[in-house]
Amino acid sequence: MSTSIEDSSRAPSTDKTFQLGNLLNVNLSGHLHKLANTMIARHGAPKPPKPPGISLLAEASRKLAASGGDLELLTPRERKAAIELFWDRRHGWEATLEDVKRWLAWASLEWGSRIGIARIAMSYLRNFDPSSEATREVGDWLAPRVSEISGPFGEFIRRYGLQHWRDAVDRVSSTLASGDQSFLQDAASDVRCQVISNGSGFLVALVAAVGRMCGTGKVQNADQLAKTLMGHLREHGLSGARGSEDMRNQARQHMVTGIVRGASRHGNPASSEAALDIALTLAGDPRVSIAQWRDIEEDVREDVESWLTARTLENLFRVINELKTDRPDMWEARRDFWRSYLPYTKRAYLLCGDRAVRIAERLKEPYGRLSNADKSHCGILMQIVSPEGSRITAIEMNMNGAALFWTRGSGSAPDFFRKNGYDRAVMKESSDHWKPHTGNWQFSFSQLIESETGIRYSPSRGRNG
Hints:
Elements: H1 2-43, H2 54-67, H3 76-81, H4 97-110, H5 114-126, H6 133-142, H7 151-160, H8 168-177, H9 182-187, H10 201-214, H11 222-232, H12 245-266, H13 269-283, H14 298-323, H15 328-339, E1 345-352, H16 354-362, E2 367-371, E3 378-385, E4 391-397, E5 403-406, E6 422-423, H17 424-430, E7 433-435, H18 441-453, H19 459-462
Parallel strand pairs: 1-2, 2-6
Antiparallel strand pairs: 1-3, 3-4, 4-5, 5-7
Helix pairs in contact: 4-6, 5-6, 8-10, 10-11, 10-12, 11-13, 12-13, 14-15, 14-16
């Protein structure tokens, strides 16, 4: 009985203590929440931790190069920053596998705290490259230690198995391809997780993997996923992302190839338009510069150039409509006529007088400057090529201007994709045929094209294109 009385006498005190503790927790939580909101209002939302600065890495690299990789000569800050030098070789010191192992042995003894392991994991993901010995060694070092990383970042790594460098990319890319974008949402949810979505090497590897899958037709909403991934590369795109140059080149090659072939297979105009935008973002306009297209197969480039030609033709009519220099019904007939030759039109380039330039730039359409022409003049330079390789070059102009033609034997046809130098008077003088749009002009034009290329005019190809 005495025990019961004693217990009952303690109960009120315990309850009061418990209630007081709850009250303090609530008040403290509310105070911290208010303080956090105040800090965000003053300084903005928290930003992902930045990698070590260039000067710090340069000094660490200098000491390591001079000493043969002696970590003891580094300051504590330099020693912690040195992990970035396993991948970043711009500063003059190239780490060997033994250097990586030696640094990880030091980290096990001196920097094995939760914070240290988290920082090492961030460097690993930021510079991720599965072909790199450093990535493999650091990933294997992290594998038994990620359980010690606390908070959302630790949960993020463990949930997706990011420490497992052998299969992490394939696993995450397969999930994304199925339509589940939880990974990207989680990557944006915490400042440390954002190391992924800030142009990381891991993201570059994902771009390459998803690109390969796009080519097989196994990606749901492929163009949307590709654009989302590209958005996470930020304004500098692949060229400004982490990872080796080889890995970035592979990502460009695989994504361009996969997204273009996937869109070509579906034959959906919206998919083709989206794929074209992605290809241009990653590799540029192949008509203007072939530099980023040399390692991409020819059939892919031909598809892109075909889409670009169709876009240029449509943009010509958008420019004409805005200039309001011609009757719409007249241009509908011309548009239908030239659309019918799109399957054989290998090149097309917009030519602009002064007023047309502003419209072309807004449409982001490459153009050449017309000279000796009215300010409202514009046109399109086209090359039509038969399957056998016979070709004819033509210029169609607005303001009821005649079309100009250069036959296959002509050596005076204008070059494509110059920025300047399209003198209207000179082109008219050098042309082999000057044909006005009078009478049954479609018959006259098509007869000339057929005589030079063997391509027969098919009006149905140009309608509702």
